[in-house]
Amino acid sequence: MVNKSTQYRTEYSVNVTAKEIVRVIGIEISEDMIVDTLGRLGIVTVIDGDAITCTIPSARLDLRIPHDIAEEVGRIHGLDNIKGVLPSADVQTKQEGTFNSVYQLKMALINLGFSEIITTSFSDKGDIKLENAIASDKGFMRTNLRDMMRISLDKNLRHMDLLGLDMIKQFEIGKVFADGRERLSLSLGIIGRMKEGKIDALISENIEKINATFSISLPAHVKGGVVEFDIESYLNDLPSDAVVWKGKNVEYKKYSSYPSITRDIAVWTPEGTTAEDVEKILVDNAGELLTSPPRLVDTFAKDERTSYAFRIVFQSHEKTLTDEEVNIVMQKITQRLETNAGWEVR
Question: Partner of 141 at 20 to 30 A CA spacing, among 25, 50, 195, 221?
């Protein structure tokens, strides 16, 4: 194969100084050593005062500017001989007021048990149409946060048992584009296995706590488990350093990429039996596929007996579990429970 192009076939020159090379590669190296190194690469050098004129062979199309020459000297000298040094600078940073206010609001919500979500700014409908949409269902700028909050809550509901949670509490702070302007909004949402009215009351309770923390007056009327506020008018009232994160140190653990399987089991027990007694048997017999401690989901007393209902989640780190595999574990648990006098699996 022959390259007939004549664009870069002639030799050309690059001017550089020893000081410039030293500054770029970060180590002291003499001018004589620089010239010797370049000579070994077939680069002819001419020294005129501080300037080093380098005649570059026609085959070296990668050497075009002084930095290229410096990098080549460093490469031949040995990159392992060049110590990494962090640059130093006296930089005074100042965080913008809105950032601090939003940060304080986020910390307050996290302290209340909410998790932050960040959803797309694009939607399939809206007031502002994009000229070059990335997808057919993302052709407009979003007009609210509520729609994606509801979608996110519904998707995360399926993971509630796996995470060992009684409810999912989420918030999002982001820009929306409606009524001819851009504004900053806050959306709160809660979902769980409880009546909608109770969820709305719980959100209202959390809003009141936010109001008390910052001495503001977000409206606490909620309907449908999701609420949204225009918060720009409240930002100036939020302090910049009032809220301290009250969370505990989080210990992260590897999660499985395979789906989980959930099973419920209820057992009648004699009077005086505690939920902890039942839970211990479940844990001892569930084996290594148990993802987290069983969750007590219902208690019912009748005729001097108490029924405890638990939800158990199984998951493997190696494969997708089958119903048959989980049924074997559940059968073992059932047999063990019924060995206790007066215990009856419902």
Answer: 221
CA dihedral 286, 289, 293, 298 (to 10 degrees): -70
User: What pTM was computed for the model?
Assistant: 0.64
Model confidence pLDDT, tens digit, residues 247-293:
667 777 788 889 999 999 999 999 889 999 999 999 999 989 998 88
CA distances from 255 to 116, 162, 193, 292 (A): 20, 11, 24, 12
CB 210 within 8 A of CB 108: yes
Find the farthest-apart pair of alpha carbons in the chain and give their distance in angstroms, rounded: 106
The letter for the amino acid at 98 is T
Mean pLDDT, rounded, for 48-63: 92
Predicted pLDDT at 90: 76
Alpha helices in the chain (DSSP H): 18-25, 31-40, 66-77, 97-111, 146-157, 160-163, 196-214, 275-286, 323-337
**Domains, in order of start, for the chain:** 12-81 (3.30.56.10), 97-237 (3.30.930.10), 261-345 (3.30.70.380)
Give 81 or 135, the one with higher predicted confidence: 135
Instruction: Tell which residue, 86, 127, 285, 112, has the closest CA to residue 190.
Output: 112
Task: Quickly state the pLDDT bin for 100 (edges 50, 70, 90).
Answer: confident
Query: Which amino acid is residue 269, in one-letter code?
Result: T
Q: How many residues would you count in the chain?
A: 346
- Measure the CA–CA gap between 18 and 31, rounded to whole angstroms: 6
Residue by residue, DSSP assigns 245-289 as --PPPP------SSPPEEEEEEEEEETT--HHHHHHHHHHHHGGG
The answer to whether 206 and 213 are in contact (CB under 8 A) is no
Q: Which residue has the tokens 């401690």?
A: 293
Whether pLDDT at 225 is above 70: yes
Q: Is 118 helix (H, G, I), strand (E, B) or coil?
A: coil
